[in-house]
Structures are given as C-alpha cells and as structure tokens.
Amino acid sequence: MSRELPIVAGEAFAEAARRELGDAQLRANLGRATRTIRDKRARVVAEVPDWEALRDRAAAVKDDVIARLPKLLTQFEQAVTAAGATVHHARDAAQANAIVTELVRAEQADQVVKIKSMATQEIGLNEALEAAGITPIETDLAELIVQLADDTPSHILVPAIHYNRSQIRELFARRMPGFTAASDEPAVLAGAAREYLRRTFLAAKVAVCGANFAVAETGSLVIVESEGNGRMCLTLPETLIAVVGVEKLLPRFADLGDFLRLLPRSSTGERMNPYTSIFTGVTPGDGPRRLHVVLLDNGRTTVAQDPVGRAALRCIRCSACLNVCPVYERAGGHAYGSVYPGPIGAILSPQLTGQDAGFNRTLPYASTLCGACYDVCPVKINIPEILIHLRQTGPKPAAERAAMASLSWVMRDRRRWRLALRAARTGSAPLRALTRRRGGTLHRAPWPLSAWTRHRDAPLPAAETFRDWWRRTHES
Amino acid sequence: MSPDLPLLFAERAGDYRAGIHHCTAAELREVLARLLSAASRVVIPPGLPQEWIDGLTVPLLLDGASPAGPAGSGAAAPITGLTAADLDAPGVSVLTGCAVAIAETGTIVLDAGAGQGRRLLTLVPDHHVCVVRDAQVVADVPDMITALPDPTRPLTMISGPSATSDIELNRVEGVHGPRRLDIVCVH
C-alpha cells in the first residue's frame, strides 16, 4: 500500500495551522463547540467527589494493562473464543485491512455498516474496502456527514463540527438518496438520516465496529454511543467484525465500574451516554451469528517499550484534551494531519508511526506546554511530559543540530561564553537601536534564524549582561 | 439501600428527557394501559409479569425467542420470533422490565433476562416503556456491576432516549433508537 496512513501528517503542523487559522467559520464553530463541551464536562466532573481517586485508579489499571499486554491478550482471546467469537491478529494496518476485507468477501457482502471507530480510521479501513469494491457506510451522524462530503473528521467526538446546518442540508440534498427536506433544522436533518439509515440497517449483512473497552477476564466488548446506530449495527446484521486496538483491554469486568464513570463525563460532559452495549461473544437468537475480533497492534507494542511515551496507550479517546487545548481550539483538527488531533494526537500519531513518518515529527511542537490537557485527562496522561520527551528524542533539522553543537562548545568554557556574549551584544547594537520602540524584539530574522521568527518574535541580547552589570555595580 | 436512591434515579433519568411516572404496584396496571393506549401494537418479551399485560387493550406481539431468560409464563404461547420489519411498523411500542437501574446516572440496564427479551425489541420500535421497581435501583455504576446476575449476557445500558449533538451541538432526541422512553417507577 503506497498511500500514507491517516495518522501521518502530510505537511508541517505550523504550515497547516497557518492555513486553517485563516478560516473564520472554522474558528467560530470550534470556539463555540470546545467552550460548550468543556463547561458541561466541568459541571458533571464537579459532581463526583472522588474524581481524583477515580483518575488515579484508572491510570494504574491501564499501566497494568500495558505492562502485562501479552498475557492479557491471551486471556481475552481464550475467553472470547470460548464465547463463540473468532480472533484474528493484525500486526499493522495493511494486515488488518486485508483480514477485514477477506471476512466481508466471505459473507458475499458488497457493503458494510460501520460504527464510528478511531481504530478503523487509523488504518484507513474505508479506503481499503472501497478499493476492494465494498461500500462502507458510516452510521454515526457526524461521520456520515464527513463521509458524504468526502472530507476528514476534525474532532474525535464531534467529527463534523466544522460544518454548519445549511452546509449539511446542502450536502444531504446533493449526496443522500431520497433526501427532500427544505428545512435545515437539526431535528429535520437528523430525521432524514434516520430514514435513510434505517433502510440500510434492515438490509445490512455485515457490520464493522471498534470497541471502547475489551475485558480480558470475560472476553466482553464494550461500545459506548449516543444515537443507537451502534446498537443497530451490533444487533441487526448476521456478521459483526470488531477492530480492537490491543491497548483497549481491561483486566477485570469490575474495572468497567470506574471507566464507565470516567468516559462519558470526560467525553460528552454527560453523567452517562444514552446507550452502552456490553456483549460477550455470540448469543444464540440475540444479535449476530458470527463475531470476528481483529486485535490490532499497528505500532502499539513498540510504544509500550518506551518508558515515558507508553503512558499515551492509556488513552480512552474521550477528547477532553482537545476541548481545553488553546492550540486545538484555534487551529482545529485538520491542522494535525492525522485522525488523532489535539494534544493526544500530538503524542500518539508520532509514536504509532515513528517520528520519521511524513511530518509527524512536527506534531510534538503543536503545543504551548500549558498542561491543561494533563489536568482534564481521565487516565492522567502527562501529555506535556511526553511532548518534551518526543521533542528531545525526535529528529532535528541539520541547522539546529549544528547550532546546538557549537553552543554546547561555547558554553563548556567560561572564557568562551563571556566572549560570545560580548560579541552578540556588540553585534546586535544597531538592531537594538532600530527596534527600541517595539521593545527590542525581532519580528523577522534572516535564514537560518527565520525558522524561529516565522512563528514568534525573537528577543535581542540585552545591552548589558548580568555579569557586566554586577561587576559595574558591586565590584568597582 | 438508601431510601433516596429511587427518587434520585427518577430525577436523573428525567434530566435526559425520558418520561417519568411514579405509581404503586396497585396503580401500575392503569398507568401502563394509559401509556400504551395510543400504540398500534405492543411488543411483549417472554417472562413479563402477567398483571402488567392484563390491562392493555391494544393488540400484543409476544416475542418467542429469548434464550437468555425463562420462557413466557404459560397462558399465551409464544407466537414467533418477531422480525426487525415487524418491530419497525408505525406506532409499535415495547414494554419491558429491567435488570438493574443506576441512581447516580439515571440509567436502566437490560440483560436480556425475563421480561426484557432480545436487544432488538427495545431498539427498533419508536416507543419504549420500562418498569423499574424501587428494589432494583443501585447507587452507581460499580454497584450495578456487582448487582448483575451474569455479566456475560448481552447488556444494554440506557440513559434516556437516543440523541445526537452532531449538528452545531444542538441536542436532537430520537435518532436511531426509540424516540420516546417512558420509565414507570413502582414504589
């Protein structure tokens, strides 16, 4: 497969962000959406007196999962197989796509209904199915909008937040068979999607889903949703294929108690989402006759080897970090060039692919390191710490490496350092005079310093160093 | 069990714009008859208490297949397994009980046991009426997990009618699941 995965940024974050910032409609929608969701979240989190203890417990459970991944995977596989499911292992995206395509072909189906799933987006499953002549139909309303528009999601939870109602009505009129409504009321548009999809659900033979949690102890899969499209996909078609990232495991069924309290509150800002389905294998007479579980690695076991970076695997995809991030709120999801946007995307995408893939090495810089994401994370991922870790370990431009090497040589010797400071001070004197009125900062420096001043002002060296000031005022 | 839990449950379920109705065991029959009087048909899962059905005046559809729970309690023999198309007909309501209810979140939990039936029954019809007895209400999600008789049955947690906020974050109730959820709290 020559096409890059949908978690590989095709351009540097700073360039993409500059373009996205020019879209006033996008900024207005994002500002309103993130503010609304984070206010709702704050209200329902404040209701839970033991919230911090919940976060600590959840983080510990997920760390345990990451530490015991192979053992828990075996336990899950045995349990779900005993309950009537078939387990497949996919090392990477290409393998997972091939497995799912083959399973759909075996059912002689030419279309599948899909529940919104980050794992299937991560591997580009829809594109792979289309290439094989199978039509994937997204059944989550926002994903359907994005799919009909041939667009990509811009937020993990509300993927079509960059569209307004009149754009959606126009899109439905153009792309949704049988759509005739004249109104752009959200209720009317949602009603049209209901009519359109109900015919599709009743005829569907194969459904594809992800999972929010997979319980090793019992082999149970958990799907958390709002619209009921998930329940339709989980109960109507005869064959269900679940693509599950290996980090979705929880050791015990009882662990769901904490996680089902944390997830909806962090994600939609509700005490509980409308529908949560928990199912264990196949139940005769109720739901699908065949269940396939595709356990997806795609870089996860590599991430698990990094003692700092592996905390990113705790993520339960709630998107709370997006809604509090000052960078995400302005730049929007598309600027990250990956289906995982925002702070979590900035640490997840480069780790899953390796920092050499596309422009993913630029993502750890898509942050002010303010730490708001860490504060709201229900599984306490220290995102700023991992961002810094990735900056330190990531590839750097040759100019930066050369500059750091010479700086290191200068700073190793007191005499060299003093001379360098003096030279910088004298050399920048004319510039200081020119820029005095705007506080002695440089807006635009020549190459190679332009790499710095493209996105921020550069302060000029002070007129007098601290050492000189001290000598002048204290030692004479 | 704290005596406040059933009231907290009713309040929190009401927050999701589910219809909340309080009654005593003696009044239940009358309340159900009223809530279901406008239905074209009422879907009945196997194992539903006979006294819930006795007062209903509309045609009933008794579902036959529910292997997770005991079969219907005698009188009416199961007709057939209903198809999704049967359940999709206009004006169909479904009447069920539940396995557990969660006070903190206003959630009802169905486990395909007696009086609840297959998952499809509470999904395709446009109107769901669920009866919750005080003794079934637990404090929070962890307590619900402990209260489940068998966690490997197909479980559905329901918190209000289906909803979406995908268009400009406007909440719209009733996308794919039942557009109306009525919860009858029996005290």
Automatic annotation (TrEMBL), chain A:
<dbReference type="InterPro" id="IPR037171">
    <property type="entry name" value="NagB/RpiA_transferase-like"/>
</dbReference>
<keyword id="KW-0813">Transport</keyword>
<dbReference type="InterPro" id="IPR009051">
    <property type="entry name" value="Helical_ferredxn"/>
</dbReference>
<dbReference type="InterPro" id="IPR017900">
    <property type="entry name" value="4Fe4S_Fe_S_CS"/>
</dbReference>
<dbReference type="InterPro" id="IPR024185">
    <property type="entry name" value="FTHF_cligase-like_sf"/>
</dbReference>
<feature type="domain" description="LUD">
    <location>
        <begin position="74"/>
        <end position="296"/>
    </location>
</feature>
<keyword id="KW-0408">Iron</keyword>
<feature type="domain" description="4Fe-4S ferredoxin-type">
    <location>
        <begin position="312"/>
        <end position="381"/>
    </location>
</feature>
<dbReference type="GO" id="GO:0051539">
    <property type="term" value="F:4 iron, 4 sulfur cluster binding"/>
</dbReference>
<dbReference type="Pfam" id="PF13183">
    <property type="entry name" value="Fer4_8"/>
</dbReference>
<dbReference type="InterPro" id="IPR003741">
    <property type="entry name" value="LUD_dom"/>
</dbReference>
<keyword id="KW-0677">Repeat</keyword>
<dbReference type="InterPro" id="IPR017896">
    <property type="entry name" value="4Fe4S_Fe-S-bd"/>
</dbReference>
<feature type="domain" description="Lactate utilization protein B C-terminal">
    <location>
        <begin position="392"/>
        <end position="473"/>
    </location>
</feature>
<keyword id="KW-0004">4Fe-4S</keyword>
<dbReference type="InterPro" id="IPR004452">
    <property type="entry name" value="LutB/LldF"/>
</dbReference>
<keyword id="KW-0479">Metal-binding</keyword>
<keyword id="KW-0249">Electron transport</keyword>
<dbReference type="GO" id="GO:0006089">
    <property type="term" value="P:lactate metabolic process"/>
</dbReference>
<keyword id="KW-0411">Iron-sulfur</keyword>
<protein>
    <submittedName>
        <fullName>Iron-sulfur cluster-binding protein</fullName>
    </submittedName>
</protein>
<dbReference type="InterPro" id="IPR024569">
    <property type="entry name" value="LutB_C"/>
</dbReference>
TrEMBL record, chain B:
<protein>
    <recommendedName>
        <fullName>LUD domain-containing protein</fullName>
    </recommendedName>
</protein>
<dbReference type="Pfam" id="PF02589">
    <property type="entry name" value="LUD_dom"/>
</dbReference>
<dbReference type="InterPro" id="IPR003741">
    <property type="entry name" value="LUD_dom"/>
</dbReference>
<dbReference type="InterPro" id="IPR037171">
    <property type="entry name" value="NagB/RpiA_transferase-like"/>
</dbReference>
<feature type="domain" description="LUD">
    <location>
        <begin position="95"/>
        <end position="185"/>
    </location>
</feature>
<dbReference type="InterPro" id="IPR024185">
    <property type="entry name" value="FTHF_cligase-like_sf"/>
</dbReference>
